[in-house]
Amino acid sequence: MPAAAPPTEGKRILSTGYAPLPVSAAHYENFPVASLLLPRRLRPGVLAIYAFARTADDVADEGEAAPAERLAALDRIGRVLDRAAAGAPAPDDPFPGLAAAIARHALPPALFHDLLSAFRQDVTTARYPAYADVLDYCRRSAAPVGRLVLHLYGAASPANLAHSDAICTGLQLVNFWQDIAIDWRKNRVYLPQEDLARFGVTERHIADARCDDRWRALLAFETARARALLVSGQPLPRALPWRLALELRGVLAGGHRILDAIDAVRGDVFRRRPQLRARDWAIVAAHALLPPRRHRAAALPT
User: Fold this and answer.
1) 3-state secondary structure of 2
2) Bridge partners, 189 (sequence order)
3) How many other CB atoms sit within 10 Å of the CB of residue 148?
4) SS3 call for 269
5) What is the pTM assigned to this prediction?
6) What is the tens place of the pLDDT at every residue in 267-278?
7) Burial category of 276 from C-beta neighbours within 10 Å (exposed 0-12, middle 13-18, buried 19 and up)
8) Helix (H) or strand (E) holding 133
9) What is the per-residue pLDDT for 96?
10) DSSP label at residue 189
């Protein structure tokens, strides 16, 4: 998975309404922008999508702006999107490649609006009562990215879209469970409240970094859910052009490695944030280059 760049994008759009954005490396989670793998003809489209998603995400998350300012800035981005979708971008449009990408690749504007909807929710929502609520958030925050990439490649068949949704949702859950402690410091809890209650866990477990048997059982349940989603999307690489398939196999392998790391520390994501290290990257590369290993979904606790 790509390394993170400093979270500076989006700051100017809060203060001025626009954010000129040079994009040279991936920062948006699980976003396929590896320059060596992308066909040259698709690079402008991918970078336009990335610039839009990264900037809007930073507006929702970064800095010290008040919620009302963030929401107003996201509304401004929505109006920029509408102009781009209509083929009439303003001269000072902060996303100069977006209109061309939408027109050239027939990208559905609704997918960009789904992303904005999720980013607005980041500003207003800090808890999720049920797993269905988390899935609805992922449908708008993660799945649109995969769908847009499939449209770029002309591979947006119903089966491919369904498999992509499963992979993107699974990867989003991987990020959530990997970053429980980080999100707590932002006053966000993505663990469904119904799951906390089911396993006898409270938010004090997170606040106190308490990793007892109840917490371990909860995290094992959640990692199994995420793993099952990744496995259900496993047929997708076989239906894609080799470059995209290669990267997707690597992304899938990375997601599985993070889940394995969470399970290896028995859910203790507080003292050691699970992340890919040098050895893990070598394994991810091997899975990307070699025929993919078939993962079996773990049985969910009953």
Assistant:
1) coil
2) 127
3) 28
4) coil
5) 0.84
6) 999 988 876 565
7) middle
8) helix 131-141
9) 84
10) B
Please, what is the average pLDDT of the chain?
84
- DSSP lists the bridge partners of residue 127 as 189
SS3 166: helix
CA distances from 280 to 198, 258, 261, 283 (A): 33, 9, 10, 5
pLDDT at res. 36 = 57
What dihedral angle (degrees, nearest 10) is formed by the CA atoms of 261, 263, 266, 269? 50
Cβ burial of 191 (10 Å; 0-12, 13-18, 19+) is: buried
Token couple for 39: 């066909």
User: For position 7, what pLDDT does the model report?
Assistant: 40
- The answer, yes or no, to whether residue 282 has pLDDT greater than 70, is no
Between the alpha carbon of residue 300 and those of residues 220, 253, 265, 267, 294, the distances in Å are 9, 21, 19, 15, 18
Q: Tell which wins on pLDDT, 291 or 268.
A: 268
Instruction: Tell me the domains of the chain and their CATH numbers.
Output: 10-124 (1.10.600.10), 126-302 (1.10.600.10)
pLDDT tier for residue 291 given thresholds of 50, 70 and 90: low
